[in-house]
Automatic annotation (TrEMBL):
Membrane topology qualifier: Multi-pass membrane protein
Full protein name: H(+)/Cl(-) exchange transporter ClcA
Subcellular location as annotated: Membrane
TM regions (residue ranges): 22-44, 82-103, 177-202, 258-276, 297-315, 335-356, 368-390, 402-426, 433-454
Keyword terms, alphabetized: CBS domain, Chloride, Chloride channel, Ion channel, Ion transport, Membrane, Transmembrane, Transmembrane helix, Transport
Key word Transport present: yes
Length: 622
């Protein structure tokens, strides 16, 4: 711990522009996020192999770029849908028990929790949360729950970044940056998309077109390191291969193709609205169920299994229909490479049902991400739309698979309000940069059309609205202003001698508009102050009018200000003690009264300065 303190003192003494402070911290976060991604990936496979595969005989199809540590094993037992139902329900139960008894903050999708910590918790994430999130999410995904991997791995990186900043006693601003860098590192590693990870960390904090600019460079560095560490665990032939392989080479053959892509964008926007509404509607339903929260993920998992079995029998025991469970990347891989082999009804049904299974899995309190399912839903909607448009305009729409790729980007861009990072993300995980034009069009249109729905509800509209930046954009119009700029030393003030009786004071009040009265001693030095309210307390007891003196009713412990005092401080004092006037005393001798500073004239001066700044701003804009 002593070494951590020394390192913290060293790092906080560095200047961002002239030192390697963020290089050191970002590398550290990247290493941990990369290792966390490896552990998380292996843990999912271990759970899946020993539950779904060993008991139910079902192994979820993977993408071309994924690596299985069990891929060389012989044929497994026959698939049993009812054992699958038992496995997924048990997974939801164990996950719920772990989460709600150890770290309730780990329920749901982890990215939203990281966003909330950034804005509202000074970047603080409890160290136990990422650990619990990793275990619970591995159980959820490994047993067949419909969720993504990005939420847990993002929270691993974010939690470590927050913990390191806390141990090193860095500022709240630095802790927020490290948290966001951890999010970027986790995303960059698990999706093998380092650039997208960095941009995602900066963009996902806000629902409007705004970026957390301070985050981009640290997040880029941590994302590169995490990506490199994670890829080192893969076989040589997969280390530089995109997640969906390097065989996707779709192109745009005509600018007129933007017309069907525009139609696709409208359909994707409607689908994104349906997804978000269903997700949070399901979440509210489960919160209303009067049972212990730890059992709700088991109910959601059971219903997810029932839906999956229904899909299996609806499509004549086609295992592709079971992609409504777990990550579902298998059907997405086929949709992007050979769309003609998948029927349009299956694609559309998987897209719609995936909305419900994801809502049941995560909305019930299960642990997992929402980006992965979003890609499957968007990809299936896009490919199905491409197939339909190809039937209508065969000369214009020649590559329906390309619509699946664009659908992945547009759908998530609309639901999550992250158009820029999503464009890069989809390009990186598919290795296809030839569709940037339609991808940009679709992502932008979906972003605009989906302004009223928010997949990540902890987002703030912009930096201006975030509590993390409260005060960054306020102009201090009183900066440099002093008490001497406001109060009038020539104003006549009625002073009360300490020996003056209450009877004399009451009669003298009748002829003045003054509300606060300084009390002075024989040498004219101020020793206290009283207000009309202090006198009013004695008005109904005439017996003490001749006995009580000014020094008996005055407040001897009073707040005073000096001519050089900052007006910001003075305004705070007015508010704190709720008075309308403060005595102004000499800068060197607090016994010498110079005058009284009124609250109204201070506020008037503030308004004058505010109007002056406003006029100056208008003139500079003109």
């Amino acid at each position: 711990m002593v070494y951590f303190k020394k390192l913290g003192a060293l790092l906080t003494s560095f200047d961002l522009k002239t030192s390697g402070k963020w290089f050191v911290l970002s590398c550290l976060i990247g290493i941990v996020a990369g290792l966390g991604g490896i552990v998380f990936d292996v843990l999912i496979q271990v759970v899946q192999h020993n539950t779904l595969v060993a008991i139910a005989g079902f192994d979820h199809p993977q993408t071309v770029g994924e690596h299985s540590i069990y891929e060389d094993e012989e044929a497994r037992k026959a698939f049993s849908p009812w054992w699958m139902l038992a496995v997924i329900t048990a997974g939801g139960l164990v996950s719920g028990i772990i989460v709600y008894n150890i770290a309730p903050e780990a329920e749901g999708h982890g990215t939203d929790a990281a966003i909330d910590a950034f804005h509202n918790k000074r970047g603080l994430i409890l160290p136990r949360v990422p650990i619990v999130k990793t275990i619970a999410s591995a159980l959820t995904l490994g047993t067949g729950g419909s969720a993504g991997r990005e939420g847990p791995i993002a929270q691993i990186g974010a939690g470590f970044g927050s913990w390191v900043a806390t141990v090193l006693k860095l500022s709240a601003r630095d802790r927020r940056i490290m948290l966001a860098a951890g999010v970027g590192a986790g995303i960059g590693a698990i999706f093998r998309a380092p650039l997208a990870g960095a941009l995602f960390a900066a963009e996902i904090m806000y629902s409007n077109a705004d970026f957390e600019s301070d985050v981009i460079v640290p997040a880029a560095m941590s994302s590169i390191i995490a990506y490199s560490v994670y890829c080192m665990s893969l076989p040589q032939e997969l280390q530089f291969m995109p997640l969906f392989g390097d065989g996707l080479h779709h192109t745009v053959d005509s600018h007129f193709e933007l017309i069907p892509y525009t139609i696709l964008s409208v359909i994707l926007s409607l689908a994104a609205m349906f997804y978000v509404k269903t997700f949070y509607g399901t979440n509210r339903f489960f919160k209303s169920i009067p049972i212990k929260p730890m059992f709700k993920p088991a109910i959601g998992a059971f219903l997810t299994g029932i839906v999956g079995i229904g899909m299996y029998y609806l499509f004549n025991k086609d295992l592709q229909a079971l992609t409504v469970m777990s990550t579902g990347y298998g059907i997405l891989q086929d949709a992007l490479t050979s769309a003609a082999q998948i029927s349009i009804p299956l694609l559309l049904t998987v897209a719609v049902v995936k909305v419900f299974t994801t809502s049941l899995t995560i909305g019930s309190g299960g642990s997992g991400g929402v980006f992965g399912p979003s890609m499957v839903i968007g990809g299936c909607v896009g490919t199905a739309t491409g197939r339909i448009l190809q039937d209508l305009w065969p000369e214009m729409v020649t590559q329906p698979e390309a619509y699946g790729l664009v659908g992945m980007a547009g759908f998530f861009a609309g639901a999550a309000h992250a158009p820029i990072s999503t464009i890069i993300m989809v390009s990186e995980i598919t290795g296809n940069y030839s569709l940037l034009l339609p991808t940009m069009l679709s992502s932008t249109l979906c972003f605009v059309l989906c302004q009223k729905v928010h997949l990540y509800q902890k987002q703030y509209p912009s930096r201006l609205d975030s509590p993390a930046h409260r005060g960054d954009f306020l102009i201090d119009v009183l900066e440099g202003s002093r008490v001497s700029d406001v109060f009038d030393p020539g104003r006549k003030i009625q002073l009360i001698h300490q020996s003056k009786t209450l009877d004399e004071i009451v009669h003298s009040l009748a002829g003045t508009q003054q509300h606060y009265f300084p009390v002075v001693d024989n040498e004219g030095r101020i020793i206290g102050i009283f207000s009309e309210d202090d006198v009013r307390a004695y008005l109904y007891d005439e017996t003490i009018w001749k006995l009580a003196l000014a020094r008996d009713i005055m407040q001897s412990n009073f707040v005073k200000v000096r001519p050089d005092d900052d007006l910001n401080t003075v305004m705070q004092r007015f508010t704190a003690i709720n008075v309308e006037a403060l005595p102004v005393v000499d800068q060197e001798d607090s016994g010498i009264l110079l005058g009284m500073l009124n609250r109204k004239e201070t506020i008037g001066y503030y308004n004058q300065q505010l109007m002056k700044h406003k006029r100056a701003g208008e003139e500079s804009e003109g």
